[in-house]
């Protein structure tokens, strides 16, 4: 399928009819930025119900890393579905779960790659983080948690207390789970403490060390620090390695666990299997979901084996680690390892170079950052003041859709480039060309 190929004003008639039914009967809490109605997909190309072809630069929010309906993943799903669909991993044994846990023990950035890892399976990112919260509390016998401003860890009530991305996600749902303290994240483009990147020694962590852990909570009562190695929903923010290193030292000093939320950044997206690898970050607990099973629901909480010692009955989920999802995950990991992690690195470098080159032409681009195919472009009205180009960002997302590119925002004024990891250089080029044209249209600078 060759995309983009838009044959009619969007949305087309079939799309309009489905959207009208959706609006009548589905929860209005879904965001739905533009009227794309999926019919089918292959690789990084998707087709809507009216036959228009789009390049997918969102991958279902960083989920379909292996591309849409990768044949190896589909075969694994079908094979497993013919054998059995469900057998409650809570009560019975089955091999796909064991194989996946063994695979993750080899790869997860835990305990220096010793393989000394156990995994708990659930169905989503939020559940993976719920398990991490409970496990950290259970193991340390402490109940406080540290998270970061701008972070996203999920929407169920435990993980929501960690989430601090947008207030709409919290508004009306309080009070939040107690015992959570938020520290500034290392956003070097908008340094929360006004430090200069050239001389920075991760001063942003001073707020945690000198304020939160002095005035608000005793370090020996903190169970864990929960951190995204690269902040996702917060705007695809890449911190310096020193931030993670100092955080790791701090947690070790005070006997806190370090939970790396790799739900969005994991599974090859950044050109490494886990984003932690870019920073030499060794975690005690790692959470995964999104890209792990190419679109089937699966959440994973992997931990140091000596940390995951809760007794039978302490935590479980009926559907968690469903055999079909586990089979999809095993096939996904193989496809990632056999070339897609590397493709994410190589095509990601090309994409980021091309996006950076656009900065000469478009002053609205304030910052281009990222690793692999997890790239954020922050739009500003003025490069000096860094005033956020929020409405312009929303327009860019809409206009990209009209040009046949599915893309999403992240944070208040960034665009996220998170395509399937099968993206080719040519497809990356087509995305940049569309972005260039859209920015020119919006700012009037041709
Ligand atoms: N953690 C991170 C870093 C995420 O980006 C997300 C979702 O965007 C979640 C957790 C929650 O995942 P889910 O929507 O599967 O519950």
How would you explain this protein's 3D organization?
The protein is of the alpha/beta class and 446 residues long. The protein has helices spanning 13-25, 59-62, 71-83, 95-107, 125-140, 157-162, 204-216, 241-254, 276-279, 323-357, 390-402, 425-443; strands spanning 38-42, 45-48, 53-56, 117-122, 144-148, 180-183, 222-227, 257-261, 285-288, 299-304, 365-371, 374-379, 405-406, 408-410, 414-417. The strands form three sheets. It has a seven-stranded mixed beta sheet, sandwiched between helices. A four-stranded mixed beta sheet has the order 1-2-3-13. A four-stranded antiparallel beta sheet has the order 11-12-15-14, with helices on one face. Strand 2 (45-48) and strand 3 form a beta hairpin. The relative contact order is 0.16. Pyridoxal-5'-phosphate binds next to helix 5. Pyridoxal-5'-phosphate (PLP) binds next to helix 5.
Order of helices and strands: HEEEHHHEHEHEHEHEHEEHEEHEEEH
Termini separation: 30 Å
Number of strands: 15
Low-confidence stretches: none
Number of helices: 12
Ligands bound here? pyridoxal-5'-phosphate
Largest sheet: 7 strands, mixed
Class by alpha and beta content? alpha/beta
Helix content: 25-40%
- Quaternary structure annotation: single chain
- Measured by DSSP, the beta-strand proportion falls in 15-25%
On the 0-100 scale, what is the average pLDDT? 96
Please give the radius of gyration in angstroms: 22 Å
Principal-axis shape equals globular
Spatial strand sequence of the major β-sheet: 4-10-9-8-7-5-6
Keywords:
446 residues, alpha/beta, 7-stranded mixed sheet, 12 helices, binds pyridoxal-5'-phosphate
């Amino acid at each position: 399928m060759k995309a983009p190929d838009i044959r009619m004003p969007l949305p087309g008639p079939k799309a309009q009819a489905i959207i009208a039914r959706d609006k009548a009967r589905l929860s209005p809490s879904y965001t739905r930025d533009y009227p794309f109605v999926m019919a089918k997909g292959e690789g990084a190309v998707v087709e809507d119900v009216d036959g228009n072809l789009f390049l997918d630069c969102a991958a279902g929010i960083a989920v379909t890393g292996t591309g849409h309906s990768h044949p190896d993943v589909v075969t694994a799903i079908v094979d497993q579905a013919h054998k059995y669909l469900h057998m409650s991993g809570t009560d019975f044994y089955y091999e796909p779960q064991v194989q996946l846990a063994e695979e993750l023990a080899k790869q997860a950035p835990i305990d220096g790659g010793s393989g000394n890892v156990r995994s708990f399976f659930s169905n989503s990112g939020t559940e993976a983080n719920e398990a991490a919260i409970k496990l950290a509390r259970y193991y340390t016998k402490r109940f406080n948690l540290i998270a970061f401003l701008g972070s996203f860890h999920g929407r169920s009530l435990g993980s929501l207390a960690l989430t601090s991305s947008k207030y709409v996600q919290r508004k009306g749902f309080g009070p939040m789970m107690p015992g959570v303290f938020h520290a500034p994240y290392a956003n070097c483009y908008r340094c929360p403490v006004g430090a200069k990147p050239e001389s920075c020694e991760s001063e942003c962590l001073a707020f945690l060390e000198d304020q939160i852990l002095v005035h608000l909570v005793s370090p020996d009562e903190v169970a864990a620090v929960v951190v995204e190695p690269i902040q996702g929903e917060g705007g695809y923010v890449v911190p310096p390695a020193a931030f993670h290193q100092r955080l790791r030292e701090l947690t070790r000093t005070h006997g806190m666990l370090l939970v790396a939320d790799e739900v969005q950044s994991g599974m090859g997206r950044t050109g490494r299997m886990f984003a932690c690898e870019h920073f030499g970050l060794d975690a005690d607990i790692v959470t995964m979901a999104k890209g792990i099973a190419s679109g089937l629901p699966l959440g994973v909480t992997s931990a140091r084996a000596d940390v995951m010692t809760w007794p039978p009955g302490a935590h479980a989920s009926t559907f968690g680690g469903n055999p079909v999802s586990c089979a999809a995950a095993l096939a996904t990991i193989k496809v990632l390892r056999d070339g897609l992690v590397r493709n994410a690195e190589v095509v990601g470098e090309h994409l980021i170079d091309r996006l950076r080159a656009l900065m000469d032409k478009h002053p609205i681009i304030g910052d281009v950052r990222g690793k692999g195919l997890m790239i954020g472009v922050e739009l500003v009205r003025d490069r000096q003041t860094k005033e956020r180009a929020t409405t312009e960002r929303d327009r860019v997302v809409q206009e990209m859709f009209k040009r046949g590119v599915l893309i999403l925002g992240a944070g208040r004024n960034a665009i996220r480039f998170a395509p399937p990891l099968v993206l080719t250089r040519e497809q990356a080029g087509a995305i940049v060309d569309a972005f260039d044209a859209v920015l020119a249209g919006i700012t009037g600078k041709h």
